[in-house]
Amino acid sequence: EGRESFPPLRNEAAVRVLQGRMKGIQGHCNSCYMDAALFSLFSCTSVLDSMLFMPYPLCDRNVQGILRDEIVNPLRRTGFVRASSVMHLREQLTDKGQCSSFTNAEKDPEEFLNLIMQQILGIEPLLKLQSGGQEQECYCYQIFMDKQEDLVVPDVQQLVERSFLSSDLKLVEIPSCFIIQMPRFGKEYKMFSKIIPSLELDITDLLLDSPRECCLCGDVATLECS
């Protein structure tokens, strides 16, 4: 109970702690989808730290303890997490979930996030999206798009905007946390060889009913064309 917690790494501390050999989360037995997701969610941001301190009985204490004490705190303290710690979490997820292959198979990150956030830690959905008048709630957004000939090395901003446009999607409200899954996962096909991280994401044009200026006269726009 009295274990010390460590804040996310920022600026120079992030570079000092996370840069170099034997840093990050050690991979083992197709764990890359989970390693990358956990690193992204916790290494340098505290926006999902509520997952680590959600009160019982809303959450599974065992899984929460492994996540906090064996993965997140070591990552923030020393910049390194052993594969055995992630395997410990994977074994617990296999016990709790309906799926028996969390310990050995490559998964879609969304499946992992849905299981740990919804079923195990009881977090409310992070995103509210609208498409064709229908609202849907989810924990992360997966970028779907056709091959774009003019995008060789895209950035995240371009991919999110084009994906929302092609799927006719809007954000119903500003999300507290916007988890985005890139079109660069799985063993078979990678749509882009590289994607440049956008350090800030402008969601002005993605928000439903958000006041925006007319690109011609500068007044508040009354029409929006795709």
Total number of strands? 7
By CATH, the superfamily of the largest domain comes out as Cysteine proteinases
Strand portion, in percent?
A: 5-15%
Q: Specify the overall morphology.
A: globular
The name of the CATH topology of the largest domain is Cathepsin B, Chain A
pLDDT < 50 stretches? none
Mean pLDDT reading: 90
Strand order in space, largest sheet: 4-3-6
The portion of residues assigned to helices is 25-40%
How many helices? The count is: 7
Can you name the CATH architecture of the largest domain? Alpha-Beta Complex
The biggest beta sheet is recorded as: 3 strands, antiparallel
- CATH level 1 name of the largest domain: Alpha Beta
* Topology pattern, helix = H, strand = E: HEHHHEHHEEEHEE
Q: Terminal Cα separation, in Å? A: 53 Å
Layout: helices, strands, pairs:
Layout: H1 11-18, E1 24-25, H2 32-42, H3 50-53, H4 61-78, E2 80-81, H5 83-96, H6 109-120, E3 127-131, E4 134-138, E5 141-142, H7 156-166, E6 169-171, E7 180-181
Parallel strand pairs: 1-2, 5-7
Antiparallel strand pairs: 3-4, 3-6
